[in-house]
Design a protein that fits this description.
alpha/beta, Spore Coat Polysaccharide Biosynthesis Protein SpsA, Chain A, nine-stranded mixed β-sheet, 10 helices, 9 strands
Length: about 280
Amino acid sequence: MTEKYLISVIIPTHNRVNLLLEAIDSVRNQTYRNVEIVVIDDKSSDNTEEVVNDLVKIDSRIKYFKNVRNSGPSATRNIGIDNTKGEFISFLDDDDVWEPEKLEKQLKTALSLECISLIFCNGFCPGTIKKYAWDVSIQNDFIKYKKNEFPLKVSLPPPSSWFMHKDIIKKTGKFDESLMYWEDQDYVLRIFLNFSVYFLNELLVKWGEAENHLYTLSEKLMDAKELFLSKHENLMRKDKDYLFRFYYRLGKDCKELNKRDRARKYFLKALKLKPFKLELLAKIL
């Protein structure tokens, strides 16, 4: 295919120089060559700066930026967005790698659709029970949901699978920098509200260690989930089942962290939605 479109690849990184090199190489080795590789270093204390600057000397497609302070994933991706020139944007986490045809296949799909859409692909995580991000038997298609369903009824894979036209980012805005976790789910939800989302069921991403993509339970995660809830609770109310599960999960997480008052609050909220769930009474008591 012709390579008239510039694709900007945004790679946030922090203290993972060896993994980062593999991620960068997977972009440099794409079959689609018209790319710029925007690496944003979230104030690493290892030799990331030296190593990436050496790469810049041999591949002019690479751009390197370093944060003046450790700012988290949202702010780091936003700096990448501010420094891109491509008509299409893709994100790559520093512990993931792409199959060589990832960008070419997603670009072909984007150009074939009749509307501007977020396109996400399937991927795999070696050595885990849940090997694939999504069921490999699902057909390529737009993600559809009913008006009374919360768009994130089924979560999308992480940003390394995303591909979008820059107009999506222009309308959606930037990542919410107040969210240190769940920032990707918040962002893709905002995309869902204005654009179509298309699933390309090809295994084009290899995720790193599974635990890096599963949020370890912590107070910071709880704070992020509560902030996500405060932002989107009104929309969630349209989907009683989803909101019930969200309250219930928050309650269980708070209980695990020994935050009993917070746990009771969310179990009570869940019970109000489904008063016949008597097992909740024991948890509340």
